[in-house]
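Worked example 2:
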Amino acid sequence: MSTAADYTKTNQVRLAAQQLRAALNAPPDRRAGAIRAATDWLASAADQHEGDAARARQGFLAQPIAQQSEQTPADIMSVVISDLNVANTLMAAGNALQETEAKPDPKLLDEALIGMQQGATLDQETTLAFQFKAEPVHSADLPSARDAFRQRTGAVLNDLVSQAKDACSNVIGGIKKLDGQKVIEALAQLGGPLTELPRIGILFRKGIEKMRNALDFLKQMLDKGMLGEIKDKLTAIWSQIADGTWANALLGCTFGREQTESLLPKVAGSDKYTVEQVDRSTDDLAPLTERFASEMKWARTVTAAIGFGGGLAVLAGVTAGTSALFLGGAYLLVLAAIIVIGRDCAGTGALFHGHRGVRVIIEGLVTP
């Protein structure tokens, strides 16, 4: 499987967009030619990027279950972020070139380019987070080992809930800016096709298609059955999401904290494992917070990218109803991803982890 570093030609898109930005300020006698050359380069770079990205997305989706350990969470997250940042850069470039009815604003292209650079930094941080290993625990005796395990379990669960709440708040903040009725319509369609957006211009159209590809990939990477379950849960607590009292209901169903912590007394009463075995389980818990923090930063970055792209679509003349349906569906997908990632990390570990979650680590100390 291609890595986050070599699967795309993101840098070529960034360089071409920077050249276009410079061409917009070129001397009048050279401006038209400079803009034409930069636009052609950007369109070509975008096509090459999409070719590589499409192969990477298909590679993830076609990978047999037995080989899924080869797909790292860092790579999956990199695909989505890279596609969204390229999409926003193309739409911002289309705006600057007056491909839409909106007043051109080259500063939007500057913001999109900053987003591309931040995406590269996020890739590096995510890779480091998934390589994190804590200092090993060395307990003096079995009671001390059990106590250290219990304390770390509580600390990890506290951190997971806190990080998830912050990321969910970002998404819900975006949702609340939209027409509530349209978001409810989008919720009813969660897991289905996203609303179509008009295809305007050349670069802007490529950006719209790129954003759809990124979100379709994210949707397909989430378990279809779980998406249906999440849709039902969000529908059931929608009034709480609307009035701001959603945290306990949403985070409770995501992390199942009470059920997980109910296993801890069994650890305290078990003599089946050595000090070293309990300490190893304590060590296994520590990296979960680093990984989950990077995943929630990814979720916040995706949320911001969707908001930026949606704003460009509105400026381009997409109707409020259409944009609300599209953005509502996109935000709800991110919310679903947060729930899936949270369940993985607190429970069994799966798609976005490739390692054991909190519950499985505990069960390893209470199961013969």
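The radius of gyration is 23 Å. Residues 74-363 form one domain.
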